[in-house]
Each structure stands twice: as structure tokens, then as C-alpha cells.
């Protein structure tokens, strides 16, 4: 894609994606912290475990693109708060599965509508078809970025 031969940071798409992602994350993080005492990694972990039922931390890392340390810290915090438990992983004795406790399921049931409300506030000015195209574009960008991660880096 050649839009311009000159780099202008504000028009550089990777920069724009990062800035927008940070703004959205900051907005949501503030709400989750105030309402539920959750960080973004903790909320993502709870949501993934709620959707999966039981999941290994490595699978959470892969799905969320969060690093191992972040996921581990979130899991430790959630287990410590009694929102999550660790169970045996029959397929891999070296790891364990994370599951929500009753308290974790209750919290998820409370947070989910608020998450959808926050999403609605952010995107209320967009038509449904615009959002469909936007999500499709994000998924295409994800796919390309994943396919490029194993390719050689740009040379100097």
C-alpha cells in the first residue's frame, strides 16, 4: 500500500491503531476499575474463561495476545479473590485449567452488560453496516499481522 512516500506519524496506520486502542482501553479500564475493581487483563481473563468453561493459561495467552506474565498475574489475582479456581488438566499434567467459581460467574454476569453498554457508548454514532465493515477489516489486519510474524524482518 503506497499512500505517501513521507512518514507522517498521525497518518501512519500502526500508530493510529495503537493510539485508538489505548484511548478505548483507558476508557474501559477506568470503568472496570471503578465499578468492579478489575484491571483489563483480569476482565479479559474472566471473559475468556466464561466463554470457554475451562481453559489453560497458554490458551488465554494465544487468544488474548497477552503475555504469559500478564495472564499469570491476572490468574493469581482472580484465584486470590475467589473468582477463579485451578483444576487438573487431564491432557497436560504440567499445566492446569482455569475455571470460574460461582462468585466469578456472578461477577461476569454483572460486568457483561456494562461492557456492552460501554461498547454502545463508544460506537453509537456508527451505523451497523459501518461496524460490520470495521470488524471485518480488523480481522483482516489480525490475519495479515499473524502471517507476517514468522517472516524475516525488514533489513537495514
TrEMBL record:
Keywords associated with the record: DNA-binding, Transcription, Transcription regulation
Highest taxon in the source lineage: Bacteria
Keyword DNA-binding attributed: yes
PROSITE patterns in the cross-refs: HTH_MARR_2
Molecular-function GO terms, alphabetical: DNA binding; DNA-binding transcription factor activity
Chain segments annotated as transmembrane: none
Gene3D superfamilies with a match to the protein in the record: Winged helix-like DNA-binding domain superfamily/Winged helix DNA-binding domain
Pfam families recorded: MarR_2 (PF12802)
Location of the HTH marR-type domain: 1-143
Matches recorded under PANTHER family: HTH-TYPE TRANSCRIPTIONAL REGULATOR PCHR
Protein name as it appears in the record: DNA-binding MarR family transcriptional regulator
Organism from which the protein derives: Sphingomonas pseudosanguinis
Amino acid at each position: 500500500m503506497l499512500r505517501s512516500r513521507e512518514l507522517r506519524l498521525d497518518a501512519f496506520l500502526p500508530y493510529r491503531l495503537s493510539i485508538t486502542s489505548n484511548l478505548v482501553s483507558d476508557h474501559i479500564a477506568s470503568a472496570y476499575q471503578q465499578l468492579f475493581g478489575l484491571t483489563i487483563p483480569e476482565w479479559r481473563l474472566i471473559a475468556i474463561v466464561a466463554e470457554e468453561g475451562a481453559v489453560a493459561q497458554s490458551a488465554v495467552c494465544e487468544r488474548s495476545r497477552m503475555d504469559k506474565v500478564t495472564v499469570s498475574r491476572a490468574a493469581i489475582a482472580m484465584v486470590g479473590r475467589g473468582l477463579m479456581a485451578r483444576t487438573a488438566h487431564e491432557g497436560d499434567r504440567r499445566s492446569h485449567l482455569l475455571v470460574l467459581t460461582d462468585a466469578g460467574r456472578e461477577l461476569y454476569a454483572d460486568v457483561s452488560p456494562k461492557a456492552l453498554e460501554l461498547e454502545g457508548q463508544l460506537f453509537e454514532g456508527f451505523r451497523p453496516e459501518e461496524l460490520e465493515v470495521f470488524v471485518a477489516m480488523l480481522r483482516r489486519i489480525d490475519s495479515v499481522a499473524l502471517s507476517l510474524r514468522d517472516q524475516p524482518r525488514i533489513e537495514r
